[in-house]
Specification:
The protein has helices at residues 3-26, 29-62, 74-79, 97-111, 115-121, 128-146, 152-179. It is mainly alpha-helical.
Length: 180
Amino acid sequence: MKSSSLKILKALVIIDIVIILISVIFFDIKILYNTQNGFISATLVMIASMISYRRMINTRVEHNVITMDDSKDFIDKLEDPHDLYSEEVVEEEEKDLVETVKDEKKKLKENRRTLYQTLKDTKAALSVYRLGAYAVLVLGFLYLNRHGLLHVPSYILALSIPPMVIVIMLLMNKEDHSQD
């Protein structure tokens, strides 16, 4: 396990212990159920997303698949997504309308993706880890709701803590690497 992943895991465990202590000391058992259900399910979703994304990136690197075009600046892509204001003006002779339509249809057919390619790219979104984590999230919510234990503010607060912790830890890790 990488050091950044270990640091994130340690931070999540420490914060979970603090949430347990605060829930037990200041609130009732209903709040404890909500905070633990929300925190654990959100943590599972975040970790599963990170694992599936890491696997997808490693597979793409292994197969030398490049999906980013660095020819344009990010701001240029936002301001001019269709490259209408490009400095390089390419003047084409006027073609017949029928010929132009045929060329465009040919381009569309070349860019069409097969079912295999689509499934290959969606492996990260449909990974077993992520689907299982979302199932835990939904089933936990339904359990709390069904048994009358749902306390929405504590549940939402507990759901929001793991993403914040992971983002903060990743930003701290990025700052540590940039200072080296």
